[in-house]
Design goal:
Blueprint lengths: L39 E2 L6 E7 L5 E6 L5 E7 L10 E6 L10 E9 L2 E8 L12 E7 L9 E6 L8 E9 L2 E8 L9 E9 L2 E2 L4 E4 L13 E9 L2 E8 L7 E8 L11 E2 L14 E10 L5 E8 L15 E6 L1 E2 L5 E2 L7 E2 L4 E3 L6 E5 L2 E5 L8 E5 L5 E5 L6 E4 L5 E4 L5 H6 L2 E4 L9 E4 L4 E5 L2 E5 L9 E3 L1
Antiparallel strand pairs: 1-24, 2-3, 3-4, 4-5, 6-7, 7-8, 8-9, 10-11, 11-12, 12-13, 12-14, 15-16, 16-17, 17-18, 19-20, 20-21, 22-23, 25-36, 26-27, 28-29, 30-31, 32-33, 34-35
Length: 476
């Protein structure tokens, strides 16, 4: 969350073709991709620093900073989309006086040795720079259900230095529970660095921490020298820690540390840092200052990125007091080498999909400006949002050209065009999504007037097809 001790610092199976529109095509999928089970961004408004995870009880849990910075909250739902309207419980309020009477920041919920613990950062009230005497604390639940149990103060995290520290997370890797946090280390002229150590108890370390990262790259020191908000992910034989950097305005962004899964995580040399940020502000999608993320999975078990971001760039006053850092959600993808590809913030609306043809799962429906094709390239160019239309139809809009739609021409060619308000344009951009090849899943896009969306090599066209595979798109 980037809090500093200064008052100016706030901051896509298709079957088609000569088979005809018969039994092989299956049932229509009305309003596919925009059902009650599809998350819509923002997922939760005015919840910054959001942590979302799916617990073994089948529920998704969400906590985060509230604009008033005065309380710890928690909500849960059987679905990711349900978090938007799920009832929210207040677990704990800041105190009337003392070191826990001021701002409360960046809570995280963890089940540690069978007990629910919520870590958070807090400072005293009273005004002046003392309100940024931020330290990490924890509350604990007296029962197995964090939504109904009684929460009480457990105590303060025993950090290695009595200095500004916050944004704590915990994870278990190969049987060891670790604690990772941001802190200002005496003698290092930064606002916060990242540290890691195994836990002895929920509030004490088992050994001296390793310093993982110090903000030194240009994108880490814009406005402030910040590395904070670590979040852990283990995939593809590697482990990753994402983190946030720079000021909490539009310059806020994500960096990434990585190590081999079998490496000694307590050796600084085991970790490498991405030389460029992995997730930044997007003018194209209108999301500014994406950061303070967490990782979870959707109901199908696919990886999902949770983060906060604003809908506008310009902020009046201190960015940390601007309330509109909303919780957002999108799919997380991976490069051939196994590293995560965050893409770009997808913008407001239903969570988009990627559509890969059955005959070549290594390529995707994508656009290059106004041209449409099937091929490889950056994630952002292959993410399409399904916009609901009349009579259960959908139109397809790329996330980075949200004012364009996939449109068919009379000769079956397709391109991206801006709506002109005409009935003809609506007809040429409306598709009926139908199921097919039920054993493989996915969907087919049938055009009004006949024909199906399919590919011929890299060309994307609409018409009849002689085989299934070229018109079969799997959704990811």
């Amino acid at each position: 969350m980037s809090i500093l001790p200064t008052l100016t610092r706030r901051a896509f199976v298709a079957v088609a073709g000569t088979v005809g529109a018969g039994a092989a095509l299956g049932r229509p999928l009305a309003a596919a991709g925009t059902s009650d089970a599809t998350p819509i961004n923002p997922l939760v408004r005015q919840r910054a620093d959001a942590q979302v995870f799916r617990h073994t009880d089948g529920f998704y849990y969400l906590t985060g900073s509230v604009p008033e910075y005065d309380r710890l909250v928690l909500r849960r739902s059987r679905t990711l989309a349900g978090l938007t309207t799920a009832p929210e419980r207040v677990l704990w309020h800041h105190l009337a006086n003392g070191p826990l009477s001021g701002f409360i920041w960046a809570p995280e919920l963890h089940l540690v040795d069978g007990r629910w613990i919520m870590y958070f950062a807090a400072g005293p009230s009273g005004g002046g720079e003392d309100v940024f005497r931020i330290r990490t604390w924890a509350v604990a639940c007296d029962g197995p259900d964090p939504m109904t149990g009684k929460w009480s103060l457990l105590g303060q995290f025993q950090a290695p230095w009595d200095s500004f520290n916050l944004d704590s997370t915990s994870f278990v890797h190969r049987g060891t529970r670790y604690f990772c946090w941001a802190q200002r280390e005496p003698g290092i002229e930064t606002n916060s660095n990242l540290y890691l150590a195994p836990l002895a108890t929920p509030l004490t370390l088992a050994r001296k921490p390793v310093r993982l990262s110090v903000p030194a790259l240009d994108w880490e020191i814009r406005g402030y020298k910040v590395n904070e908000a670590p979040s852990f992910l283990a995939r593809n034989g590697r482990v990753f820690i994402s983190y946030s950097a720079s000021a909490t305005d539009a310059r806020y962004c994500l960096g990434l540390l990585s190590a081999n899964a079998d490496a000694d995580l307590m050796e600084a040399a085991s970790w490498s840092k991405s030389p460029v940020p992995v997730f930044v502000t997007s003018e194209a999608t209108g999301v500014y200052g994406p950061g303070h993320n967490s990782f979870t999975v959707d109901e199908a078990g696919r990886d999902v990125l949770i983060y906060h971001g604003r809908d506008y760039r310009e902020i009046s006053g201190d960015p940390l007091f601007d309330p509109n850092r909303h919780t957002r959600v999108q799919r997380l993808y991976y490069r051939p080498d196994g590293t995560p590809d965050f893409g770009i913030p997808v913008g407001n609306g239903p969570m988009p999909d990627r559509f890969s043809p059955l005959d070549d799962a290594t390529v995707f429906l994508r656009h290059d400006g106004g041209s449409l094709l099937v091929g490889g390239g950056a994630v952002a160019g292959s993410q399409f949002r399904q916009i609901p239309g009349a009579a259960g139809t959908v139109s397809l809009a790329p996330i980075d050209l949200p004012d364009h739609r996939l449109c068919r021409a009379q000769d079956g060619a397709v391109s991206l065009l801006k709506p002109d308000g005409s009935r003809d344009f609506a007809d040429r951009t409306s598709f009926r999504r139908v199921a097919g090849l039920a054993d493989r899943g996915g969907a087919s896009f049938a055009a009004r007037g006949g024909g199906y969306l399919h590919h011929i090599g890299p060309r994307l066209v609409i018409g009849r097809v002689s085989g299934l595979a070229s018109a079969t798109f799997l959704v990811s």
